[in-house]
Amino acid sequence: MYLGEVVELGPVDAVWDAPAHPYTRALLAAMPSSDPDRRTEVPPISGDPPNPIDPPAGCRFHTRCPFAEPLCANDTPKLTDLDTMGHQAACYMAIAGSGHSRAPAKAKGENAA
Ligand code: SF4
Question: Which label site among 33, 36, 50, 69 has the fewest CB atoms less than 10 Å from its CB?
Fold first, then answer.
């Protein structure tokens, strides 16, 4: 969850092995490690959280997301199925054909027209 909204959900293995939302990735990257080779030197997320009483329009994470594009500030991404096992994310990068430059052009299994 980020600012009161679910941004990703699904089976633990799916979310753990292939987090789709940048906030989920940042949370997982922030986990401390006792392995010196896996210690992070750079914070996985920058900036301060916005005021939850007056959250930003569009994707609530767009003010801190390194992948934010103009559409992220204009419209709120909906939780979208990433597979048939219940893995979902609310990020335009995960929504086929959303218009985000990193989004897949077509959903899995969809034929090119
Ligand atoms: S919708 Fe945009 S701002 Fe929100 S997490 Fe995805 S890329 Fe980042």
Answer: 36
Neighbour count for residue 110 (Cβ, 10 Å): 11
Distance 90 CA to ligand 1 centre (A): 8
Segment 64-77 shows an average pLDDT of: 97
- Phi, psi angles (nearest 5°) of residue 112: -70, 140
Percent of the chain at pLDDT exceeding 70:
94
What are the Cα distances from residue 52, in Å, to 8, 17, 57, 68?
18, 29, 12, 19
Residue ranges covered by each domain of the chain: 1-24+56-108
Ligand 1 geometric centre to CA of 14 (Å): 19
pTM of the shown model: 0.88
